[in-house]
Prior knowledge:
Layout: E1 2-5, H1 6-23, E2 27-31, E3 34-39, H2 42-65, H3 72-79
Parallel strand pairs: 1-2
Antiparallel strand pairs: 2-3
Amino acid sequence: xxxxxxxxxxxxxxxLADKVCxxxxxxxxxxxxxxxxxxxSYEDFEAIExxxxxxxxxxxxxxxxxxxxxxxxxxxxxxxx
Length: 81
């Protein structure tokens, strides 16, 4: 993974975007030596979203099996919906 300083992003944005979009590279952007975000292709983003969704569903199924849930009516009442 390529790492760049946040101050380098704007002048190189077109070049960095090309690396990400056309070469599948991931770019880690740092501020003060610490990573703050990563540039990824939209395809990678969709894959991450799908994985998160699957993990959320798995956790929800586990909670239901253990009886750890709140009935919808109670949740709506608590949230004032």
